[in-house]
Design a protein that fits this description.
Mean pLDDT of chain A: 94
Number of helices of chain A: 10
Largest interface: A-B, 44 and 45 residues
Shape of chain A: globular
Radius of gyration of chain A: 16 Å
Structural class of chain A: alpha/beta
Largest sheet of chain A: 6 strands, mixed
Oligomer: homodimer
CATH superfamily of chain A: Cobalamin biosynthesis CobH/CbiC, precorrin-8X methylmutase
Helix content of chain A: 40-55%
CATH architecture of chain A: 3-Layer(aba) Sandwich
Strand order of the largest sheet of chain A: 1-6-5-4-2-3
Number of strands of chain A: 6
Chain lengths: 209, 209
């Protein structure tokens, strides 16, 4: 089950990878708690990109609030289906509304992205839990807006949209809120980063670090 | 429809992103054909990581053979579901057998990864088309083995597994075959890279570059 492995061969690969990841980033993760370090290690393992040890930002209350939400089996809301299908061992529900009819309608009506409209649909459906955004900056900004208006009950946000247009700014905006967050600095991020963060939290909850 | 956008706002973001991507990598893509360049641009757009312009390798026959397979609406086989769900506008079928009962059985019986077993299942099912591996080096090596044994009919391979254990070596092995390929050098790669390459090919087939 470690690092997503489900067979002996998969486990051996994951274990060897973990040693390499540790050797690459141990000097950059000294300021983190052991749980935060486990999350960053999984992100570097999943991306093979040690830069994530330098650009990942985790608020002091992120791990605690996220684990509380996971323990209560609250929903996890993702911006796109690539994030949803990557979270494959959660006892609670993982939701994505990007293909929902209502999201398509709202996107057309307001001239916004479907990823953004999908966040509004989640709010209307009474979402409560962890938000994981791996792709669309517009979805992240929409969540911040819905939270500010008191229209969405968010326990923590994994905000790692990727791209050269708006992604860095949306992640800066997240870090300026009171929300428990995990975010990356700059344009980098993506669905594997969001998936790695969520799956690391699920493993932490199970006591598998 | 450009770069995956489906709304006016999405289109505007994608267009601005494309200009930035071009400015970042144009000096590194002079040796590529215009179609190869469109693929590399989409990979950099999807990852926000210009390094992919330097580490992406495309065989001379890759674009032509892949486009032929796409035009014939042959299957696209992925190693994990994250790649499958990212390919959302293909007229043909996108297949993934990692959760297939037969794959679970084969993995246990032979002590191999599920991703690897899933490639054997595809071969048994008579797969014919493009293989896109975004995660598991073991799946890529399995495909090369099946092709060499004459047990699998592969038209081209997008081989971009990610990780510090075996990924670089598996992509080297792919580049030493006669197969039309797109691969990355070193540990980096991942599901967004595989998805970007496939979706760029689908767009090229539709005449949308």
């Amino acid at each position: 089950m470690f690092m997503g492995a489900s067979t002996k061969q998969g486990y051996d690969i994951a274990e060897k990878s973990r040693e390499i990841v540790k050797s690459l980033i141990d000097d950059k993760t000294g300021h983190l708690t052991s749980k935060e370090r486990a999350i960053v290690e999984r992100i570097v393992h999943s991306t093979a990109d040690p830069e994530y040890a330098e650009i990942t930002r985790i608020s002091g209350n992120f791990v605690q609030e996220s684990l509380k939400s996971i323990r209560n089996e609250e929903d996890i809301l993702t911006d796109i289906n690539m994030v949803k299908v990557g979270i494959n061992r959660y006892k609670g529900k993982v939701k994505c509304y990007i293909k929902d009819e209502k999201a398509v309608k709202i996107a057309k009506e307001y001239g916004i992205t479907r990823a953004s409209a999908a966040m509004r649909v989640a709010a209307l459906e009474g979402f409560e839990g962890i938000v994981a955004i791996g792709n669309a900056p517009t979805a992240l900004l929409e969540v911040l807006d819905l939270v500010q208006k008191g229209e969405m009950d968010v326990k923590s946000v994994i905000g790692v949209p990727v791209g050269f247009v708006g992604a860095a700014e949306s992640k800066k905006a997240l870090q300026e809120t009171e929300l428990p967050y995990l975010a990356t600095e700059g344009p980098k991020g993506g669905t594997p980063v969001a998936v790695a963060a969520v799956n690391a939290l699920i493993n932490l909850d199970l006591g598998k670090v």
